[in-house]
Amino acid sequence: MNAVIPIREATAGCGEAPVLRERGQREVFCGLTGIIWLHRKIQDAFFLVVGSRTCAHLIQSAAGVMIFAEPRFATAIIDERDLAGLADCNDELDRVVTRLLERRPEIKMLFLVGSCPSEVIKLDLSRAASRLSGRFSPDVRVLNYSGSGIETTFTQGEDACLAALVPSLPAAAATAPASLMVVGTLADVVEDQFTRLFAQLGFGTDKPAVRFFPPRRANDLPEIGPNTKFLLAQPFLADTARALEDRGAQRLAAPFPLGVEGTTAWLRAAADAFAVDAGVFDKVTAAGRERATGALARHRLQLAGKRVFFFPDSQLEIPIARFLARELGMHLVEVGTPYLHRQHLAEELDMLPAGTLLSEGQHVENQLDRCREVRPDIVVCGLGLANPLEAEGMTTKWAIELVFTPIQGYDQAADLAELFARPLVRRMKLVA
After folding, report:
1. For the chain, what is the total number of helices (H) and then of strands (E)?
2. Region 90-111: what's the mean pLDDT?
């Protein structure tokens, strides 16, 4: 049997720690990037970006889609005639949408995704979505959200998308029993694993069934009402959580399901809310905890004592930093995040090592100066900074890979650790 990795007891943490707030030049992707994982999740939805050729190149290159593939996203190009006012943008959009739905009759939900260009020319996509939804319903529901990169970071694209979808959730009857909703896009394999764990805990039998949002099919939206409790699976869903709470749902406070500790606490929040017996909980989660702990042991040998510096990028920084520090023994030099939602991250902040330097927002030049001064063992940053830092002899990890890769749950804990071990191993081989 593998030795169990000791998990440190929570200390005073960083719940009340001061935060260095920075404002300046930013280095992030725009919210259009979220389409890459959203279109894979909602299998009969289509994402139509209303933007420029640059927008089209961005999502095409980010998705790595082959030229002959039929992805469920596209770009309605705003060209010179639109910008000059020589064409009616609404007529052009109606024409594109009609042609798209004629060609792709399997589409059940269409998102009109705003971009920087469409917002600059003040194209009202909300009104366009309402008009088109009236025309094509009930076969197709048309919604809109903004994926613009102006003053946002790329994971907010998912937040905007799900927040736009919340008003479409059917209302649960006032007398409906309590229900549990897991909120945030998870890879199908992770969702299946959590579904099995919840079933073993009694959900779906003597406890309510668990629903996931977003669903895999557009017409399989979960009901919501005052008796709905929800768990956030991602830390970047502030607007979605607010929209759910406005409809009466209650958020269950919990860390995020990263690593053994985070996954266990996340599951326990649901178990406690629905009165799952503690003995049953321990029995159900024991195998996953032991399996993940054993798998993390070899990565801890490589990572313990290594120093990590987080540039603000995905909003996953604080939960991942907690995992690296507490379960792998890494030293947190600085943990930067684009936005720090203290309420949603309260449990995570309490588990960070006391004295951790937290920064919110970005002034990339200042952060680069601090990073160069301390020369950490590994830097977590966006693609725009990774190559220059590698050229300076630093080891980097692309932050966006942490969003694209399934990392939640027990069975993915070692995969998450390996994402940090692999660049260090590569660096050692290069300098050997």
Report:
1. 17, 14
2. 93
Q: From edge to edge, which strands make up the β-sheet containing 141-146?
A: 73-77, 45-51, 109-114, 141-146
Q: Which residues of 99-117 are buried (b: 16+ CB within 10 A; e: fewer)?
A: ebbeeeeebbbbbbbbbbb
Mean pLDDT of 69-74: 80
Query: CA torsion angle for 315, 321, 324, 327 (degrees, to 10)?
Result: -110
> In whole angstroms, what is the distance from residue 360 CA to residue 332 CA?
15
Q: What are phi and psi of 291, to 5 degrees?
A: -65, -45
Check residue 399 and report its DSSP letter.
Answer: H
pTM tops 0.90, yes or no: yes
Q: Is 181 helix (H, G, I), strand (E, B) or coil?
A: strand
Calculate the alpha carbon distances from 284 to 179, 398, 428 in Å.
21, 34, 40
Backbone phi, then psi, for 405, in 5-degree steps? Answer: -95, 140
Cis peptide before 138 (omega within 30 of 0): yes
* Cβ contact 415:291 at 8 Å: no
